[in-house]
Specification:
Layout (H helix, E strand, L loop, with lengths): L1 H21 L10 H36 L9 H30 L6 H4 L17 H23 L7 H20 L3 H26 L10 H38 L8 H7 L20 H7 L9 H31 L4 H10 L10
Helix pairs in contact: 1-2, 1-6, 2-3, 2-5, 3-5, 3-7, 5-6, 5-7, 6-11, 7-8, 8-11, 11-12
Length: 367
């Protein structure tokens, strides 16, 4: 399985750089092909330098803290320190990207972008009909592709392995596939929202793991582990299980792409309307407007299972649903942690090690 996933990772990298250098880029791309390919490579190497700088600073700051402030010097074990360093650079990335994505969606234009508020504006004008995207969104995409390539590479070849190693590896590959295809097909508006939901919800996950490595639980740790753990139930449940599924996957992709992309008068639907002798045989109602609830997505699916205006529709839906399944699995791991803490008399640190972290420094490594 590991070899298969690594082969897929290499194919994804090759596809990204080949497309940037020699393929057709979406409208309003601020760079030409060759320049975009070079820029993406520089982002990857530059981000690696930032990651290792954060890891170095983490060790520099936390080693003396562990010896002098944290009870029992929890970071004295090399493996625990390595895990902390890995989590700190991820926290840095998630906070930075959350701020950038929030700025692009809510601040840059002086108001919240309409496509953040209304799912139909994600597709109007339709990406197939020359939808333009501001340069800052392209910048976020280049950054995120660099981040996820580096993240996947470090996960595979460098970082300490956790019990969910394969699940996390699969998650990284699915995310890279979504980034690549959504950029290629010009679906970047919805892509930025998906990225924001992941980054903002990952911040508390990072903090939970960091507090756990430092053993900041109970009274002596100001209940930081417990607070972060309970907060994760709310943020993960809202951003990843509710908002991503209901607003992005269901309304943004499954319904919105069809409601807008196959609407009466939309470029590309002329031949279908002519053959059916009507604009209203694919789920749209006369007098209806986008988002008013009159669109019948089931009728549309029956009449138009596929269409050139719906490129990447089934692939996007499948990849996003795969992500959602993984989110549910991780959420179940949170519940398992809670169960062990409540009914097995384990402290949060020990429960986390058993459910998620894998073997300790004193246990035999079985890779």
């Amino acid at each position: 399985m590991n070899a298969l996933l690594t082969s897929l990772f290499m194919l994804e990298i090759a596809a990204i750089f080949a497309t940037l250098g020699f393929g057709t880029l979406p409208p309003s791309t601020p760079l030409d092909g060759k320049t975009a390919m070079v820029a993406q490579g520089l982002y990857c190497f530059g981000l690696l330098a930032v990651i290792y700088l954060v890891k170095y600073c983490t060790a520099l700051i936390f080693r003396p803290l562990s010896r002098t402030i944290f009870a029992g010097d929890p970071l004295s074990k090399p493996k625990t320190m390595h895990k902390l360093q890995d989590q700190m650079w991820q926290l840095f990335i998630h906070v930075t990207m959350t701020l950038l994505e929030y700025y692009v969606m809510h601040v840059e234009s002086g108001k919240t972008e309409s496509w953040v508020l209304n799912y139909w504006d994600l597709w109007e004008p339709h990406p197939e009909n020359g939808q333009t995207t501001k340069a800052s969104v392209h910048f976020i995409y280049f950054l995120q592709m660099g981040i996820w390539i580096d993240t996947c590479m470090l996960h595979r070849f460098v970082e300490e392995r956790h019990k969910d190693y394969i699940l996390m590896y699969t998650h990284h590959l699915v995310t890279i596939a979504l980034l690549y295809t959504s950029y290629y097909y010009n679906y970047m508006r919805i892509g930025v929202i998906v990225l924001y939901l992941h980054d903002v919800s990952d911040i508390l996950v990072d903090l939970l793991k960091i507090f756990n490595y430092c053993q900041l639980e109970g009274m002596r740790g100001l209940f930081l582990v417990e607070t972060a753990f309970i907060s994760n139930f709310a943020t993960w449940g809202y951003y990843r299980l509710y908002y991503l599924f209901w607003h992005v996957i269901v309304h943004g992709v499954l319904i919105g792409a069809r409601e807008v992309g196959t609407a009466p008068g939309v470029k590309g639907m002329e031949s279908f309307s002519k053959a059916a002798n009507s604009d209203y045989t694919r789920g749209h109602m006369k007098g209806g407007t986008f988002g008013d609830g009159s669109f019948n997505v089931w009728e549309n699916l029956w009449q138009l299972p596929t269409h050139p205006n719906l490129k990447f529709y089934w692939s996007a839906a499948s990849l996003l649903c795969a992500l959602q399944i993984m989110h549910v699995i991780w959420y179940m791991m949170f519940w398992r942690l809670l169960y062990r803490m409540l009914f097995s008399s384990e402290n949060p640190h020990d429960a986390g090690r058993e459910v998620y972290e894998g073997e300790s420094d004193d246990e035999k490594k079985n890779d």
